[in-house]
Amino acid sequence: MANELRVIKGISFTVQRGEVICILGPSGTGKSSLIRCLNGLTTPVQGKILVNGQMVYPLNRNVSEMRKNVGFVFQHFELFPHMSVLRNVSLALRKVKKLPRLIAEEKALKALNQVGLADKAHASPAELSGGQKQRVAIARALAQDPQIILFDEPTSALDPELIGEVLAVMENIARQGMTMLVVTHEIDFAKRVAHRVFFLDQGMILEQGSPEHVFSRPDQERTREFLRASHLVELEPTTSIQAARPRMQPSPTASAQPIIQVQDLCLVYKRDDGSELPVLKGVNFSINKGEVVCILGPSGTGKSSLIRCLNGLTPPTYGSVKINGADIYSPGFDIALARQNIGFVFQHFELIPHMSVLSNVSLALRKVKRITRNLAEEKAKAALAKVGLADKAGAHPAELSGGQKQRVAIARALAQDPEIILFDEPTSALDPELIGEVLNVMEDIASQGMTMLVVTHEIDFAKRVAHRVFFLDQGTIWEQGTPDVIFTAPRKERTWQFLSASQLLRGAKPPATFDAPDMPVKALNQKFGSFKPLIKEKERFDRANILASASLWLGVLLAVPFFLWPVSGPLAAATGLRVLFTKPRHPNASFKAWFGLASGIAQIVLFVIMLNVICFVFPWFCML
């Protein structure tokens, strides 16, 4: 049919018992759909699926029985937030395998011990890190004693440290002979663990083979393009493919002129229960014009919050941020003016779906910089050309790939002619090929001398492009230095732990001694953990705005009677006099008439007095 979308197209393969298969390929090519078909979560339209020799499709009678032997680890954990870890793991054993509670919990504890989380059995998912949540999901699959485990991109939502944590558990399971099919972009894991690698594209297995063959000598041109674009492997040279992109050699310092200065920056969020959550704790740094700084660190440590503080998207609780010497949080400073020189590239593109690419890029120029439509579109087209998307100006976001959407977002920032661009994990939602596409554009921008702060987990990009690297943890900059120092010989133990867990320092020996932290964690938390700010800029600005509004309305309320008195005063006096000369009249009418007469005379007198005062203070008013 015309409206059908064929996701999987005639795939055939066999997996042996104990074999580990890693499935790679671009986003949207059917990888997740494929493994969901293998345990009946998604029903194919044709073909045959046999598990342990038993027909699963098209005869669906055995699906429920088959699922008891096929574990599934989802991309986003899928834990029940109101249940403890132990109940999350034991629930399927009780509901599907109909085991008694005690036996189910015993098996759940054994599985949790396998993934190193026995001590978290009674915790709730909200108390766990992302890596721990994914390990609970793996324990849930292991507790069923499955013959096969299917993994659907189990590390895509994690930072490098948590990725290392989860992959170490998966590697241990693979060594025990478990049959595993893993949809992943973790090529280093596939090299170490997989028996075979499938490369999927456009719904078909374009190439399969051993990791050595697929990653070093792939047969298909499309496979080579994918791996080359991802910057993740060094292919053996061929005549048909260009050599790998050379690494940039950034100068040691970009400029001696500081463009960003941050001092004692603190950010405290208010929880729903009224308690405080310190996110940033006394951050200090300066960045020179033309410098590229990459910010790394575990999830939830304040990296995104930090760069959002630099352009006012998140006002800090305390501290100063100076852009070109001007404190953007000082009273009366026009932060909207500062933002015109600071581009921001969001993690999830943030494009307006009903607008064309050209309109998305030119909108800020017209609404913020107030330039004409023709000039705005001319600048937008120039920015799109810089990111290689001039031919997509008339397209809508829905027609673009993830990499193209992010390049449009970069063009939107470039079109403003900013002095600084802030990038908030611009590649986190992309597959390796699209990551390479976006990083190439960012690398070109960096080579042109743009000041850039990049929150990223792309360590290879940071090695090639950054002048300095900040390692952020627990709300403060734990260590900073050149990429050569940070990635090969970090001096702080916490930095070493993070990079070791992310496999970057795999096999390297730690130094005999580490440098002490600039401020120990205990002292840091004592100083900033329950920080009570002396100045709350946002509250002060809001209060000033409320007072100004009150002053305006009071002025209006006082001014309106003044202009009515010349009319209401004589009318009240005249009406009162008329009633007093009317006979006979109601007894209460006399009181009302005398009050109206007195009120009218008072209004006339007050009007004359006020008019004289105004004429004395503002002589020009009486000359009109």
Comma- or semicolon-separated keywords:
elongated, 42% helix, 6-stranded mixed beta sheet, single chain
Helix-strand blueprint:
Elements: E1 20-24, H1 31-38, E2 49-51, E3 54-57, H2 63-67, E4 70-73, H3 85-95, H4 101-114, H5 130-142, E5 148-152, H6 160-175, E6 179-183, H7 187-193, E7 196-201, E8 204-209, H8 211-216, H9 221-230, E9 258-270, E10 276-288, E11 292-296, H10 303-309, E12 318-323, E13 326-327, H11 335-339, E14 342-345, H12 357-367, H13 373-386, H14 402-414, E15 420-424, H15 432-447, E16 451-455, H16 459-465, E17 468-473, E18 476-481, H17 483-488, H18 493-501, H19 521-528, H20 537-580, H21 587-617, H22 619-622
Parallel strand pairs: 1-6, 1-7, 4-5, 5-6, 11-16, 11-17, 14-15, 15-16
Antiparallel strand pairs: 2-3, 7-8, 9-10, 9-12, 12-13, 17-18
Task: Describe the structure concisely for a colleague.
Helices cover about 40% and strands about 15% of the residues.
Assess the beta-strand content as a share of residues. 15-25%
Unreliable stretches, pLDDT < 50, 5 or more residues? 238-247, 529-537
Largest sheet: 6 strands, mixed
What's the number of extended β-strand segments? 18
Query: How many H/I helices?
Result: 22
Q: What topology, given as strand order, has the largest sheet?
A: 4-5-6-1-7-8
| CA distance, first residue to last residue | 80 Å
Radius of gyration: 34 Å
Helix content: 40-55%
Mean pLDDT: 83
Quaternary state reads single chain
Structural class: alpha/beta
Overall 3D form: elongated
Describe the structure.
It is a single chain. With 624 residues, this protein is an alpha/beta fold. Helices cover 42% and strands 17% of the residues. The protein is built from 22 helices and 18 strands. The strands form four sheets. Strands 4-5-6-1-7-8 form a six-stranded mixed beta sheet, sandwiched between helices. A six-stranded mixed beta sheet has the order 14-15-16-11-17-18, sandwiched between helices. Strands 10-9-12-13 form a four-stranded antiparallel beta sheet. Helix 3 runs parallel beside helix 5. The relative contact order is 0.08.
